[in-house]
Amino acid sequence: MEELTKFAPRPNGAGEMFQLLRDGRPRTRSDLAAATGQARSTIAARIDALMAAGLVVPAGEASSTGGRPPATFAFNPDAKVVLAVDLGATHAHLAVTDLASRVLVETDQLLPIAEGPDVVLSWVKTAGDKLLASAERELSDLAGVGVGLPGPVEHSTGRPINPPIMPAWDDVDVPGILRSHFKAPVLVDNDVNIMALGEHRAAWQDVNDLFFLKVATGIGAGIIADGALRRGAQGAAGDVGHIAVPGAAAVQCRCGNVGCLEAVASGQAIAATLAEQGLEARSSADVVTLVRSGELAASTAVRQAGRDIGAVLAACVSMLNPSIVAIGGIVAEAGEHLIAGIREVVYQRSLPLATQHLRIVTSQTRGEAGVLGASAMAVDHVLSPEAIDAFVA
Amino acid sequence: MEELTKFAPRPNGAGEMFQLLRDGRPRTRSDLAAATGQARSTIAARIDALMAAGLVVPAGEASSTGGRPPATFAFNPDAKVVLAVDLGATHAHLAVTDLASRVLVETDQLLPIAEGPDVVLSWVKTAGDKLLASAERELSDLAGVGVGLPGPVEHSTGRPINPPIMPAWDDVDVPGILRSHFKAPVLVDNDVNIMALGEHRAAWQDVNDLFFLKVATGIGAGIIADGALRRGAQGAAGDVGHIAVPGAAAVQCRCGNVGCLEAVASGQAIAATLAEQGLEARSSADVVTLVRSGELAASTAVRQAGRDIGAVLAACVSMLNPSIVAIGGIVAEAGEHLIAGIREVVYQRSLPLATQHLRIVTSQTRGEAGVLGASAMAVDHVLSPEAIDAFVA
């Protein structure tokens, strides 16, 4: 199974065939031959190799119109596990999942990213080992590690680039550090990208175009277009927090510009507004608490933040024409006020063609989006057609 | 060759192998076997079938390290031709191209789209026949037709949907009407999408993320992300003309909203501003003429339009992180004033990570972008892996 990470330049059809099985449905050798155009003898050999590795298991017999019913085969998501790591500004969320990204065990810990890579990654190693043990799996069962970080990440190298809220992490070789401990491939991406991926895979697999917006201490987005995450040229796509809000006050932003979405409508900005009104609000979590306690000023501020977000989202909707806009992040937990404000402005400001089939919803995966996406990113890598081809070769 | 349009459900490797040859480089049978992982005997049979169809031709011998030098084969873009149709608000531009989208003959005609589908499509049929004749090709040589229309198009059916400047075209079966005359598959898309595709293929093939902005009577965009055109859920992606310009005056737009980019910065809007100042300006073309004649008020107005466009483009750049922004459309012909205004605001308003490697340039394909893209769209369809598989099957 170590060879799963050694890529061959030469496709042999095994990976292509295996992708069909990843939906979990059992299939016969004939089904697979018909769907791939590969010879039945080739299919039989590939099935044998994947069964030997435990990635494919017998799944009973198909119904037959006469004669001996043919055997069926299915993907075995228990063959290996993946460690999913979602590092936020203040919290770390870890999970061990199977190869279908189902969470087996998980843990959540207050851990400010600003503690720096030494402290945070040491904790990830220790907590990861403990989680594997509590899932009763060995280190050798670990097929890969997926990590989300709260800042821009160069996807090809997995290194953070000039991350504003985590300066000590700039250009740190996160994949190398974790790989030397976990002995498995490590994939790293921006936290909002993995949340978008998690939300898409877990809740909207049939949707091709999804826009995921995280509203928390900061504001960011992840873009699914034609079924896949789009990261842009430097991995910075979805960085909507510093787009100017049309019509907003010229509030100073930490980026140096004025009137940025994040300066006007983030959880931090809402907390500041409420604090000016004499309320006890220092963080996004305080804002959610105030709204839930029925504090009118808090609901009003969250609704106005929704409108400001809506003004920028209207542009995103015109530009990308998604069919789902999913709102996640802790501020989305403050009930319907945020989404009501968002809907108000998006439906008013966007063209009818872009909104007639548009749904704006609260994230279905909520706090799990990050670990689900980190798992999916790692699984996609270790079970990619190229990886399976190399493994079977 | 008619079978090129009949898709088989069952891949046989011929299409996959053929895609490698589309770059024009000659390859040996062994090259193709190594690159695809298919058996050498399979490759040989596929090459024979594609040679019989004229799509592949012998391309001499490869150099050899000893023994008989192996034969090489190459894609033959002359095997068939494609009709590329770029229909704008006021002009029609037609070209016959080869299968590498090289223009063989072309024609340009003043033809308002508002004349309606009967008049316009009849002209396309007549002009298309004449162009084929002047290229000395038969109707049976025509592999496909690509069409760009100046309004929203449902890509799957090729029908315009509620097109604002061409109401008589709503839900017209453009592909059906042209197919019955040209006896070949017809692909239809929005004009800005095909311009983006044409610019990408002809000038920036190595760039994965390109944003194409057309500034003419209206304003629209086409999005290339991860190497392919992204159309969104209803084909409306890139519809940036009705995004609110941050900080702009509340100018009434024909869409019903105020302060839309198109109402503030399109060629039409610039012409209106200049007409108010007593200048002779009724159209985008008049604006370009005035700028070229050295009229200061016109240069100033175009530069301000550039700044307003820049304010919206900054949001597009933050959101999509392209490496190239190409500005096309007739207003881009007005020299450097437009692009200077755009650059001024984009570099001021976007995050450093998104702009450090960003280039904002004038379209390299200029007036040819539309026909080049229409041709590429048709060629991609008729030479797709599925089409070639079906043809060879």
TrEMBL record, chains A, B:
<dbReference type="InterPro" id="IPR049874">
    <property type="entry name" value="ROK_cs"/>
</dbReference>
<dbReference type="Pfam" id="PF00480">
    <property type="entry name" value="ROK"/>
</dbReference>
<dbReference type="GO" id="GO:0004340">
    <property type="term" value="F:glucokinase activity"/>
</dbReference>
<comment type="similarity">
    <text>Belongs to the ROK (NagC/XylR) family.</text>
</comment>
<protein>
    <submittedName>
        <fullName>Glucokinase</fullName>
        <ecNumber>2.7.1.2</ecNumber>
    </submittedName>
</protein>
<dbReference type="InterPro" id="IPR036390">
    <property type="entry name" value="WH_DNA-bd_sf"/>
</dbReference>
<dbReference type="InterPro" id="IPR043129">
    <property type="entry name" value="ATPase_NBD"/>
</dbReference>
<keyword id="KW-0808">Transferase</keyword>
<dbReference type="InterPro" id="IPR036388">
    <property type="entry name" value="WH-like_DNA-bd_sf"/>
</dbReference>
<keyword id="KW-0418">Kinase</keyword>
<dbReference type="InterPro" id="IPR000600">
    <property type="entry name" value="ROK"/>
</dbReference>
